[in-house]
Amino acid sequence: MTSQTEHASPANSMVESHEGDFGCSVMDLRKLMELRSTDAVNQINVHYGGVLNLCRRLKTNPVEGLSGNPEDLGKRKQMFGMNLIPPKKPKTFLELVWEALQDVTLIILEIAAIISLVLSFYRPPGEDNEREYLE
């Protein structure tokens, strides 16, 4: 059985060989972001030797964050890309209407409107006789 340090060291040397100035690639960071809870902590501990070692590899301070040096920020943008989430395509008006029509309250109101419309055209059979008496 291999220990964690023996298991982590070959992966670490391979990671350092193709990430340039930083100790991990964009794909490695994306994989970490997809993990949750203890899985993420275990992954960081096994592959990077803990949070402090990961911060050291990324050349950042765990308390203060990035230094703000424009040259450093330029390298990070080149290595990792821009730090933004691409905007979603806005929904069309018809898509919004369709979603609104799926609401339970609106469905009940639509059914009530249809029943009301049908009843407004309905004439009971004895209603004509009542008009004659009223005139």
Automatic annotation (TrEMBL):
Superkingdom, taxonomy of origin: Eukaryota
GO molecular function, one term: P-type calcium transporter activity
GO cellular component terms given for this protein: plasma membrane
GO biological process terms, semicolon-separated: regulation of cytosolic calcium ion concentration
UniProt keyword list: Magnesium
Pfam families noted in UniProt: Cation_ATPase_N (PF00690)
SUPFAM superfamilies assigned: Calcium ATPase, transmembrane domain M
SMART domains named among the record's database cross-references: Cation_ATPase_N
Domain Cation-transporting P-type ATPase N-terminal intervals: 45-121
Name of the molecule in the record: Cation-transporting P-type ATPase N-terminal domain-containing protein
